[in-house]
Structures
1.
Amino acid sequence: DSGVTQTPKHLITATGQRVTLRCSPRSGDLSVYWYQQSLDQGLQFLIQYYNGEERAKGNILERFSAQQFPDLHSELNLSSLELGDSALYFCASSVGGVSYEQYFGPGTRLTVT
Amino acid sequence: AQKITQTQPGMFVQEKEAVTLDCTYDTSDQSYGLFWYKQPSSGEMIFLIYQGSYDEQNATEGRYSLNFQKARKSANLVISASQLGDSAMYFCAMREDRDDKIIFGKGTRLHILP
C-alpha cells in the first residue's frame, strides 16, 4: 500500500459526460501528479500540482482540468468524454516539488461507452 | 523524437538469473533524473529506483541496481537473482529538471520462468 488513495476504482460513463476523479496523497507529500495509461498511448504525464499550485503540465487535453485543494487532495475533471478517454488514470504523490520518487495510487479505471 | 526508448518489448528469464532491462534516453539538459517503475498484473505502479544525472555512483536498492552510463545516455535496470514475483511490466522514465515533466518509455514485459 503506497499511502496514496484514489476514488473511485472503476467508473463507467457515456460519451459527452463529465466525471471527477479524486486523489489523496500520502501524508506529508505536497506534490500530486496525474497520469493516463492507455494501450495505444502508454503512460502519459498529464499535470503536476505542488502545494496547491500548478507546477508542470504534460499532455493534458483542454477538456481535462485539475486542481489541488488546501488539504492537498486533488481532483481531475474530465469533460465531454470521448471513447478514446477510456484509460487507467493514476495519481502519484511526492514530498517535494522536484520528484525523486513518486508513490502511485491504485488508479481509476475509466470506461467511456 | 522519443525521449525514452526501451527496446525490449518482452523478455523471458530463468528464475535466479540476473536480468538487465535496457533504457536509453534523449535529453540536452544537464540536470535530470531517471526512474524505474514496476507494474505487476494487478495494475499498481511501484517505484523501484532513482538516479540523478549528477550522481556519481550507480543507484542501488536491494536486488535492483541502475547501470547509469551518462555518455551513452543509458540507464539500464539490473535485477539480481530474479524471482517469480519479478514478472511484471517495467517502465523507465525521465524527468528534465527545467520543466519537471516526467516521460515514460513504452515498457518491457518481463517473464520469470520457474
2.
Amino acid sequence: GAVVSQHPSWVICKSGTSVKIECRSLDFQATTMFWYRQFPKQSLMLMATSNEGSKATYEQGVEKDKFLINHASLTLSTLTVTSAHPEDSSFYICSARALAGGPRTDTQYFGPGTRLTVL
Amino acid sequence: QKEVEQNSGPLSVPEGAIASLNCTYSDRGSQSFFWYRQYSGKSPELIMFIYSNGDKEDGRFTAQLNKASQYVSLLIRDSQPSDSATYLCAVDPPGGYQKVTFGTGTKLQVIP
C-alpha cells in the first residue's frame, strides 16, 4: 500500500491566492523529503530538499519566497505556493526517505501528487 | 555529461515481446540502482532495485547491473499494453541515503 500520502490530490485556485500542499509519510519517519514539479510531457524537476527541523535547500532557479517549504515533523512536510499564477499550474509530487537504521531507507518513495490549476 | 542517461524513446514493442530499457550513469562510486515506472498523469512508483552486479528477477521484470561498464538495464518479459509507461532509472550517490538522481526516462509503448 501507499507509504506516502499527499493532500489535496487536485486543487483549482484563482490567480494571486496561496495554496498549501501536505505530504505525509505513513509508516516511517521521513528525515528527508523532496518536492518535485512536473509539467505535461516533461521530466521530473526537483524543486527542493528538506530535512526535518531545518531550512529547505532549493534547486537553482526555484524561488524560495514563492515556494515555501516546512518540514516541521518527521512525518509531515508542506509546500505552499504563494501568490500563485497560471504559470505555476503543474503536477507537484513529494517524495520521502528515511535515514539509515530504519524502514524506507533504501530509496525515495513518492506521494501520489497534487495537480494544481491556477485560473 | 548527464549523471544518469536514458534514451527518451519512445520504445515500441509488440505485445508478448521482451522490452529492454537501458541506463548509464557517470559516478563510478554509485552503489544502489532503481527503476521506477510512471504512468501518464501519475507519480513514479518503485518497481525494482539492484545493488550487486548481475541479474535480479522479480516476476516479469529483470534488472541487470554492470558496475564496470556503469550500465543498468531493465528487461520486461511478455510485455503487456499495461506496461506502457515511462520508466525512470535512478541512482543513489556514493554513501547512499541521500537524494537519488533520476534519468529523464524512457517511454515504452506496448502495441497490442
